[in-house]
Amino acid sequence: MVSGPEYPFGNFDNIPAICALAKSYNIGCHFDCCIGFINLFAEEAGFKLQYLCDFRVPGLTSISCDTHKYGHGPKGYSVCLFKTTELRSHQFYVCMTW
């Protein structure tokens, strides 16, 4: 798992290096982008980040975003993005007797 920016100091993990390590072991890597989901759009907005932080990074398989922080979504609302629909298909759960 990689983080960027982490709370409270705003540091970014070396996302490409950690994802490459995960890929070398044939495992996925999750990016916790909780307070920095807007960084996914930084390049398009003309800002240069130190590391790529989207699905162009080889080995990155999922990204979580807490849109209630800067996306002005409802409190506690989060999103988990998956690189492929095959990975996402393992996340569905149904419990009819809850």
Could you provide a short overview of the structure?
With about 100 residues, this protein is of the alpha/beta class.
Give a verbal description of the structure:
- The protein has 98 residues and is α/β, with parallel strands linked by helices.
- The chain has a single domain (2-89), classed as 3-Layer(aba) Sandwich (Aspartate Aminotransferase, domain 2).
- The protein has helices spanning 15-24, 67-70, 85-89; strands at residues 2-3, 29-32, 60-65, 79-82.
- It has a 4-stranded mixed beta sheet.
- Helix 1 (15-24) links the parallel strand 1 (2-3) and strand 2 (29-32).
- The model has no long low-confidence stretch (mean pLDDT 86).
CATH topology: Aspartate Aminotransferase, domain 2
Derived structural class: alpha/beta
| Biggest β-sheet description | 4 strands, mixed
The CATH architecture assignment turns out to be 3-Layer(aba) Sandwich
Q: How much of the residues is beta strand, in percent? A: 15-25%
CATH domain class name: Alpha Beta
As residue ranges, the low-confidence spans are none
Based on CA atoms alone, the radius of gyration comes out at: 15 Å
Instruction: Kindly report how far apart the N and C termini lie.
Output: 31 Å
Number of helices: 3
Mean pLDDT: 86
The number of E-state strands comes to 4
Name of the CATH homologous superfamily: Type I PLP-dependent aspartate aminotransferase-like (Major domain)
Name the helix and strand elements from N-terminus to C-terminus, one letter apiece: EHEEHEH
Describe the protein's topology.
Blueprint: E1 2-3, H1 15-24, E2 29-32, E3 60-65, H2 67-70, E4 79-82, H3 85-89
Parallel strand pairs: 1-2, 2-3
Antiparallel strand pairs: 3-4
